[in-house]
Amino acid sequence: MNVSEVNQNMAIPQRLPANGSDRFNYMVSYLSDCQLQMVLEMDGHVNQQRLLHAMEASTIAEPIMGCRFIKDSVRPYWERRSDLASSGWCSLQLLSESDSEEKAVQEWLSSPIDIDADAMVKVRILRTSTKEIVCIKLNHLCSDGAGLIEYVHLLASLYSELAQKPRYVPKSNPEGRDQSRLFKEMGIPNGGMPQAPEPQGPTLPFTPGEPAKRRQAIRRIPREEWLELAQGFKQKGFTVNDVLLAAYMRALSQQMENIPEEQIKVMVTVNVRKFLPTGKADAIYNLSGVVHASMNQATGSFADQVKEVAEFMKNQRDNKEILHDAVNTFAFVENLEFHHTLKIIQDVRKQIVADGNSTPILSNFGMISTSQISFDDVKVAGAYIVSPAYYAPGLMLGVSTYQDCITLNISFFESNTDIGVIEKLLDTMLEEIKSYKE
Questions:
Q1: Separation CA 169–CA 4 (nearest Å)
Q2: What is the model's pLDDT at position 7?
Q3: CA angle 235, 292, 33 (to 5 degrees)
Q4: What was the pLDDT predicted at 86?
Q5: What element of type H or E holds 134?
Q6: With a cut of 50, which residues of the chain have pLDDT below it?
Q7: What three-state secondary structure class fits 380?
Q8: How many CA atoms lie within 13 A of 362 on its CB side?
């Protein structure tokens, strides 16, 4: 597939506007390493050349995937790039019987990206004699976690289509990222002021300094055990998010130094696509809002805490103001000259480090798929998402589910955060969650 010829024949613009959420995501690059990653555990071998062709086709279906972000000081934009073929964006690593698959996965997850120079997506195939693990990195500049899930489904679909029609070229979608059009059609006013920022809450102890040695701590609850737990939550009238948030708050309170429980805050990300007419976006981009939760109960059991959280979250599930505030935030950022927005986030970052406060984040990316994903005849046996590593004192817990196996993950930098604290935080969460089935 000659992407350059397709670009010309399909009249894909060489430049695409950067919308408000793109600019907002670039601001987030001052707070995290902007890596959204997914690990796919395959039950066989994929064809590397066909996967590469599927990645090329994805830059036609979703043109943003074939662009780089240009930081114009006034109005940044996306520019189509012609060097992807030589960028090494789809690589293969052969593993011998003596090689550790887990070590290879961790090394890839820990490897950095250059958000300005690297491709929006990078893939590493870790191949053994019988199976392989496909690891996908997506630059957070162009998408959120829900967009990563959409991209993996797109990639699997294109791979399967190319197996039947090697010269297949997908329909392009250069107009789909026009969020202002979508919001206008929905009758959402674009131009109101976003809510005033919430004061930052306490976080884990950290060591100031430059971030180095990215790590990720991961915990998984297997299918049968998780199905039993989830069914128990449902019977009690609680959602998975209710239990996760309560467990996260209690685990945080145990790991924080000299912080009263009633001061614990968590910022919960919300995929606001559920408020759209079709329940999904027209293209891959960021469309997330936030809910600020706080722990008001200083004493009591975990069951009491779940009830309190559930009562609070019940009033937030259908709150369209979350979408409206996200729209207003994106519009506010878009209406500023870009250098002003960067100055704002630089000042925010300095203040966070100086104060030592940064409200921890919970991002439940949800179900990766309601059914098993297939790349033609190769099935995805297991999958999980690895969230970005936030710069201390920032902290994000990422959660994802695939084939009824749930994965909890925190990415961090070893130079700033004690790995023992992160491991203990996740272990405490699992203990609380599993205790709730009694």
A1: 13
A2: 53
A3: 105
A4: 85
A5: strand 132-139
A6: none
A7: strand
A8: 25
Which tokens is 46 given?
Answer: 């994929």
- How many C-beta atoms lie closer than 10 Å to residue 304's C-beta? 12
Place of tokens 């008001």: 296
Given this model, what pLDDT does residue 136 score?
A: 98
Q: How far apart are CA 393 and CA 208, in angstroms?
A: 8
Evaluate if pTM is beyond 0.70. Answer: yes
pLDDT score recorded for residue 120: 97
List, in sequence order, every residue forming a beta bridge with 125; answer none if it has no partner: 92, 134
Distance CA 368, CA 279 (A): 15
pLDDT of residue 430: 97
- Per DSSP, 108 falls in state H
Distance between CA atoms of 162 and 66, rounded to whole angstroms?
Answer: 19
pLDDT in tens, 84-139: 988 889 999 999 999 999 999 999 999 999 999 999 999 999 999 999 999 999 99
Of 357, 390, 354, 195, the C-alpha closest to 264 is 357
pLDDT at residue 191, as a whole number: 59
Ramachandran region of residue 86, left (φ > 0), alpha (ψ -120 to 50) or beta? alpha
What are 70's two structure tokens?
């240009």
Question: Strands 265-271 and 361-367: what pairing?
Answer: parallel
The residue among 111, 136, 104, 105 whose CA lies nearest residue 122 is: 136
Residue pointed to by tokens 């059914």 = 371
Beta bridge partners of 16: 78
Report the amino acid identity of residue 312. Answer: F
Please provide the size of the chain in residues: 438
* d(C-alpha 45, C-alpha 62), whole Å: 26
As a dihedral over the C-alpha atoms of residue 176, residue 179, residue 181, residue 185, rounded to 10 degrees, the angle is: 110
- Furthest-apart CA pair in the chain: how many Å? 66
